[in-house]
Design brief:
This protein has 362 residues and is α/β, with parallel strands linked by helices. Helices cover 27% and strands 26% of the residues. The protein has two domains: 2-154 and 331-360, Alpha-Beta Complex (Quinone Oxidoreductase, Chain A, domain 1), CATH 3.90.180; 171-307, Quinone Oxidoreductase, Chain A, domain 1 (Alpha-Beta Complex), CATH 3.90.180.
Length: 362
Amino acid sequence: MKATLFRQHGGPEVLEYTDFPTPEPKAGEILVHLRASALNRMDVLVRNGWTGLKLEHPHINGADGAGEVVALGSPLPEGEGLRRRADGSSLAHRVEAVRVGDRVVINANLGCGKCEFCQNGRDNLCRDWHLLGETIRGTYAEYICVPARQLYKLPSEFDFHAAAAAALVYQTAWHSMVKRGGVKAGEIIAIVGAGGGVNSASIQVAKYLGAQVIVIGSNQRKLEQAESLGADILIDRSKEEDWSKAVFIATEKRGVDVVVDNVGTTFPMSLRALKKGGRLLTVGNSGAPRFEIDNRYIFAKHLSILGSSMSTLADFAEVMDLVVAGKLKPIIDKTFPLKDAAAAQERLWRGENFGKITLDIP
């Protein structure tokens, strides 16, 4: 098969479009012919590498992907492949439920399927958790094998690129805002950043839940795009250095109920922007992993900082149901051929995108 891979860490120049052995499905796995992949900032971080990251080289980037089922592994033994939702009801994900020719999108959140967290429907807390494309070869390729439980069947008319663009960011936003953050109708939500995939998804999820949305963006173009998704109040941080003050004024000196902050270095202003009893939700640290905060804001204002990563299998199915129903609409910035993945990653890393960048796979 064709794949874009790297044999050593480095800049975009280490990415190579070449031939690579096509994988074969093991027991409980499905072979998918990928038609679309979508980029995430993690792709570039993995390509660059960090201390302690251990990969089998050559490595293939990519967490998001959608395509067609082309082969099935042998069934798992009776009883395996059965998981539980948080409410205790069963959620079966077995090879027998998938057929050759099915159109599917992949859930990149890889639990082991065996530990107590996976068995109790909390697989994003798995003791042996992995993210597809991070520590396991991913979707910048024509074919990939994944456990059957990682697949969501798509309607025949649903676009592969839209599905790939939705998979990681919508489950991440949904789990953070609904399951961790408990966002409710009538609340005011501030979202730090306008252009990234999780942020554009968060705007839509917040509006779907009935919240009022304030977006703090880097420029007018991205803010206008955020407004097209339903953002109610726009703050241009290039003109408002202390945007927490602008949020305070916009809310009549009340502050917001929730801040979605996946930058990290902006935590000090996010904490100031929250009202008493507010919640800061975070799923990433695009600014930097280490920064300083003033702890007095947390205890004096009774604030909560709630982190999460990805979602459960049940959450993924729940939010993808909304996506395929058209209630949440993935935003695609630009599509590149698989062979031009390096250029796609550069666009992403420069922050030129609004929404998701996808790769077209032949």
